[in-house]
Amino acid sequence: MRPLLHPALSRTWRDRTTLQFGLTDTAGVVLDGLGAVEAALLGEMTGRYDVRALRELAAELGAERAVADRLVDTVLSAGVAVDADTCPQPVTVARAQPELSSIALRGAEPDGGVAALDGRGRVRVDVHGAGRVGAQVARLLAASGVGDVVVHDTTAVRDDDVVPGGHRPGAVGRTRRAALEHAIRADRITSPPPSAAAGDTTAQPDAAILVDAPGAEQNEAADLIRHGVAHLRVLVVETTGVVGPLVLPGVSSCLRCHDLHRTDHDPHWPLALDSYTRRPPPAPACDAATAATVAGIATAQLLAHLDGHAAAAVDGTIEVTSPYGLPRRRSWSRHPACGCGWT
Predict the structure, then answer these.
(1) N or C: lower Cβ tally within 10 Å for the chain?
(2) In Å, how far are 246, 272, 330 from 269, measured between CA atoms?
(3) What is the pLDDT of residue 198?
(4) Is the pTM of this model over 0.85?
């Protein structure tokens, strides 16, 4: 164990005995009652010295060796230090370091986020639909450490698919899947799992994202439910982007549940949905800002699930409407008439 004060947190001495880590309410921590010995020990928590060396330093300063043990326990439990022995060398993870820092700040694990990022690297996520939003989601997943991102979309890239963070101008005319393969490889910050390296796409994914027009994803969703695969629905309709639900088969509400709830509220909903699916508008709206916002929220929701957190899109949808782009969450529940809840 070689304690290292968290490299993603700023440090401010409020006074001679009070040290503040970080700046925000979510990550900030204040340690008070610190003396000269503790201040000196904190100054040496650079990842160079192990706990034994810190104990000896405490003794040299005239304090009990246990002072070092207590201080190490305090900073680790507070989440303001990590163990340099379990953190990767900066040279090998320069592109991954911001991701590692964010993961580490969300928990108190002493490895600096390494285990969680390794877990992402062993995961396969399928992205169904790779237009303006889906292409960004696929690339963001790779840039966030997901080891295998498989795109399901053989549609040719059009001029209006091109957007920063998604398809590039030179991709026009190629299939969306082929156009994204190189970008995903370039964006990836973890090594792909053996199945990805071998090109095996026959097995079921760990999770999937359905990015398409409303109603068009029902067949894929039904297949994913049968195989017990978690899946997130994402779409932009007119000026509103919708992320959710994140369906956990057998646990949470599904896409059909949501349609049944809408039908209870508006009996003409199935007619409107069928009409939209069969005859979509010739020039659907999806401005660049909304596409980027929706892609970011969708990626964050799926990563939260993969990392073991309770994602807000489970039994819910997160909706953003231009021009303001302020997200709001809408709660949903299983519908009693939907078979997904029957036991």
Answers:
(1) C
(2) 21, 5, 18
(3) 54
(4) yes
